[in-house]
């Protein structure tokens, strides 16, 4: 005896374990199969209904598919209704059985006795109909769109919308029916017609100009909705708004039709202003209409006054107590800020107040809008407000806030001194949250501004005297003390009031020792110690009176647990020996200015071609500058915070040098693990350093020059990097213009690699030009990202092609930085 659906549900809910539930369902499925086998017509619709519930619970019900087809063929509406419901739930458009029901759907669509039967057939075709079924039944759907019954017209229009999405080649079959749908006085038919036209325009934007003739009809319909009130459409009223769903749909459609058309936009201006002013925004229904209206205003070629009205509506949204409304307003302001910046600027104070909201999502969105509002005119005021907020911002929010302030300052700084002052303020207030790239950018700005060296080092010195708790302040301060400490102790330093400032060499060394004893981040103390060691060796030539004290300070690092710091301290101590007296000043000269853009409005002009830095390419810079010598190559990588790792070391270290090879000597002023720049050897270093040569740095081993390559030559791909799931291959082709290299990047891991940056540097006799990478995201298990380079060897192959790489990306929430060298190019390339 077949039980009813409610009894089955009751028995399943009474089960206390999953095994008991499976037993109940298995027993009932067995009874249903038996009933189907016996062709029980009396309870077929009840059994299919129970199968629908079992299907909802995740159990297999494929054995009931044919019974759904039998119910659809029934003449009784209750059975037909259950059959169509089972058809849409138990089958999909890929099921082969579905083709058997095509004729039944066709007959039901033409049913004149019951409109709901036609509606069921149209819904089934739209939901689960295969492309073949849609093609064969599209003519019947087209006929029903002109039916005298508004219910059928509405269902036919929605079915046509689904057909247009599934079958591309018949998208224009219903175009001639759309006009009548948009003129229909029935709200449901008009809504379905708007949905059909919106879908069609999104799939094929070329139809926009053709359907702009219906703008007048849409405006007339929208005006009747706005002005009807409670008189003609009380049944559609929701919180005082007449049919908000239809109003929103018409506004979205007008947005598509008015975009890029001044004539159509002029026709819409009046009705949009009417909607914006007459719609009550005290309830969520009205706010939804106002939101759609603002998006339409900002998307079309609206008048300036209408745009101001739309942005003022968003400004009112910002004053709402509802966090959802405020979030929507901020998101919309971020999208439209470029349309009318001045109108958005009027609400700047309210946007800044949103930075103090308790909701983190609103704070982040407000920060995005505030950053978009920054320009040359308000950079000082906006930066001041953001710095004031930095004082009270939550810890989790400070990193992003500092990053945005630094980006705005670098982009719109009115002067280099103001830029330096502001960045120092950021480091004083949130130095523990400043990323390495912002610290490096600050050092580039200072290095590229010789006239501000004295001012910067004085300001950093006294800020460090006040506090050593901010990591970025300590790191860049230590670097500046090492590079420009002579300005501080020269006796010519003056304060803001032009009063002389007296700082002795011993005071500078005392401050560095304080930084060693009380590092801002004890867990990363080795990074601070590495910077202090580099600064101390630089101060040997800046503060010669503290020579022995500096030697004593460096000896403390000889026994460091960090091998890199231990090695460098040994190399630095070796540099203090008497045999290096004649060349020490050249080795410890100032860091050369990086070729990369440092920002600001008064950046010094580039030097002559002979003084140009080496070629340096990244995925974000299409072409690099002319190349320079290998010494600058190491300098640049030091400035970027990377490490130079020679493949081979053909020269022995000087006696007592701590075991480092010749390559280590050239690299002895590298940063190691530190995040801020360190000192690097100058190009006029003494012979013992210069004699190491280019080949030793890149692992060439001093091989003889190779003969020139043939006029045209292509090599199979060669692997240049394979680590942690990242694989890089070079495909090289030599022709008359140089060597074309295509770098292909493969992500062999199961997680994406984002913010991917590929950088390359070459020696002076090579010229490098890089194109942008095809993407900055490496999807898992793919090799679809590439980057093109062209290398010209000015020695015609007498010297080998060498390249130093730096790769950066984010993987599984971790920032990864890798270095590599390519010295295995074939002879002649």
Descriptive notes:
This protein has 829 residues and is α+β, with helices and mostly antiparallel strands. It has a domain at 615-637 and 704-829: Sandwich (Immunoglobulin-like), CATH 2.60.40.1230. Helices cover 53% and strands 9% of the residues. The protein has 36 helices and twelve strands. The strands form three sheets. Strands 4, 5, 6, 7, 9 and 10 form a six-stranded antiparallel sheet that branches. Strands 3-8-11-12 form a four-stranded antiparallel sheet, with no helix packed on it. Strand 5 (718-723) and strand 6 (726-735) form a beta hairpin. The protein is elongated and about 110 Å long. The termini are far apart. The model is unreliable at 597-711 (pLDDT under 50).
Key features?
36 helices; 9% strand; six-stranded antiparallel sheet; 12 strands; alpha+beta; four-stranded antiparallel sheet; single chain; Immunoglobulin-like; 829 residues
What's the topology here?
Layout: H1 5-13, H2 18-37, H3 44-56, H4 65-72, H5 77-90, H6 102-109, H7 115-128, H8 131-144, H9 150-166, H10 175-183, H11 187-203, H12 208-211, H13 215-228, E1 237-238, E2 241-242, H14 244-258, H15 262-278, H16 284-299, H17 304-318, H18 323-336, H19 341-345, H20 348-354, H21 360-373, H22 379-392, H23 395-412, H24 416-430, H25 436-447, H26 453-466, H27 471-489, H28 505-517, H29 525-542, H30 547-555, H31 563-575, H32 584-587, E3 616-617, H33 630-639, H34 662-666, H35 687-690, H36 693-697, E4 713-714, E5 718-723, E6 726-735, E7 738-747, E8 753-761, E9 766-770, E10 782-793, E11 803-811, E12 814-822
Antiparallel strand pairs: 1-2, 3-8, 4-6, 5-6, 6-7, 7-10, 8-11, 9-10, 11-12
